[in-house]
Amino acid sequence: MTLIATRTPRSPSALVRVKRPGDRRSLSRSATRALDVLELFGTTRRPLRAVEISKALGIHASTTNQLLKTMLDSGHLVFDARAKTYLPSPRLAEFSAWIIASYGANGRLIDLIEEVRSATGMVVTISTPNDLFMQLIDCAVPDGERGERGLSVSVFGSAIGSAYLASLDDAEVLRLADRARVPKADLPAILEDLAQIREAGFADGATAGSDYWSMAMALPMRGLQVPTVLGIAGSSAEVRPRLDEFHRIMREASARWSPAET
Question: Cβ neighbours of residue 15 under 8 Å, at least 6 residues apart?
Fold first, then answer.
């Protein structure tokens, strides 16, 4: 289930737009699969055989072999013929070092969402702005649920978008609203809503067409290269009565995660 909350009830004309990865004509399946392979290495942190990669990513064996050969030929992977295993090549070392510098070492963002998921039992997401959309870049889900990494939802009208907008000044919000063609009649309500979010420290709202409720808060920029929003979602009965408790959990986990300045 896609858990995206609407946020601006006083702005009925602000419709939430959702874009799924598979819906985009610009999506290159081969490029996405190659990145999934690299991410799998980061998760397992060991050399992998082709059959392991194929099984983990749900890719046909012949497709996996072709993909791995391409990544091997380009120098992004190396191959141990004796063990018949692949692993990332030193060519990616600088890229890895930059990612660590941007988001912290030891998988801190992954640790953060896992900590919040364990403490709340809810779906937990990390998202970043992508023009006029918020894009889910990672998630931690309870058993039986699923997340949609790469899914994008409009900044205006969503809880995660509102949490991001609340981190901006009003002038920047109005500039984005103009680009998003938000009706001028809706702007006073949106700005008032964002002022309330800044005071509360989080945004929350219902997921259209379901009984789910979401809440979100912007992470501190220290140690991050891009604005990042932490969100949780679950049934209304589970989330709405515990907004303050969940906000405290998110805030404390964020404080423990936030890398020290160097």
Answer: 154, 157
